Amino acid sequence: MTPAAEALKARLGGLSPRHALVLGSGLGTLVEAIADPVRVSYADLPGFPVSSVSGHAGEIVAGTIGGTPVVALSGRVHFYETGDPAAMRPAIETLRDLGVETLILTNAAGSLKPDMPPGSVMRIADHINFSGWNPLMGTPDAPFEDGRFVGMSSAYDQPLAEAMRKAAKRIGVELHEGVYMWFSGPSFETPAEIRMARTLGADAVGMSTVPEVILARFFGLRVAAASVITNLGAGMDASELSHAETKEMAPVGGKRLAALLTALFEEEAP
């Protein structure tokens, strides 16, 4: 067990969550859905990655959603902050050591579909790793021989996907589904890059999540992921993209995503 997992377990007072969330830019308000929260700063956990990006609180919030024990990471470290695609490995490994079995990742993303406007929620059905980087590069250790060669054909768990669809339908939240393309950032994409992404089959673009999906599968966790749409891709309208827009628009779709996750956990995710 990692030192961070030992320190976190001691702070949770017997709470043993099987489900974890990672909350993206501007989505920290999702922690309001967590009842009886226990808050632990990343800085208080040995070796835990601390984000420098505004809109990321940098704390763990544990409690219950819909009666189900959960632990949420309010904020993440990005590849563009560190130059290390495995920057979130200590966090994902800590969750695994804590006993987490299912990881639900969230992010703020740009839409490549005019009929998926800002404020929408998209379940990530698959991804394209356009960055060319992989968090398992240089990894000598593995839980089993050749463990770094992680299969990604079913990276996004189908029972979890179906549970999310049912939860969205039950509460009347429109849940889009599509392919997420990971760009390294931190600069936003150009109009030409957005045209390319659309041609390659992407439905949304962003600067996170894909490394965590790979790491989670490496550590044997089941994965689901959702994007809150904060803008249309570059060149799809007349506005210039900014992180301020991301933080402003994320809570709009974040409310829909919080309602969906509450409904999911009320039934307890499979």
Write a compact overview of the structure shown:
With 270 residues, this protein is an alpha/beta fold.
User: Which strands sit side by side, in order, in the main sheet?
Assistant: 5-8-7-6-9
For the report, how would you describe the main beta sheet?
Answer: 5 strands, mixed, barrel
Elements, N to C (H/E): HEEEEHHEEHEHEHEH
Summed over residues and divided by their number, the pLDDT gives a mean of 90
* CATH level-two architecture: 3-Layer(aba) Sandwich
Q: Could you describe the 3D structure shown?
A:
Homotrimer. GO terms for molecular function: purine-nucleoside phosphorylase activity. A purine D-ribonucleoside binds at residues 189, 231. With 270 residues, the chain is α/β, with parallel strands linked by helices. The chain has one domain (3-266): 3-Layer(aba) Sandwich (Rossmann fold), CATH 3.40.50. The chain is 30% helix and 25% strand. It is built from seven helices and nine strands; from the N terminus they run H-E-E-E-E-H-H-E-E-H-E-H-E-H-E-H. It has a five-stranded mixed barrel. Helix 5 (191-200) links the parallel strand 7 and strand 8 (204-206). Helix 1 (3-11) crosses helix 3 and helix 4 (158-171) crosses helix 7 (243-266). It is globular and about 50 Å long. The mean pLDDT is 90.
Indicate the topology.
Blueprint: H1 3-11, E1 19-23, E2 35-41, E3 59-65, E4 68-74, H2 79-82, H3 89-98, E5 102-111, E6 121-129, H4 158-171, E7 175-182, H5 191-200, E8 204-206, H6 210-218, E9 222-232, H7 243-266
Parallel strand pairs: 1-4, 1-5, 5-9, 6-7, 7-8
Antiparallel strand pairs: 2-3, 3-4, 5-8, 6-9
EC number: 2.4.2.1
Enzyme class: transferase
Family: Belongs to the PNP/MTAP phosphorylase family.
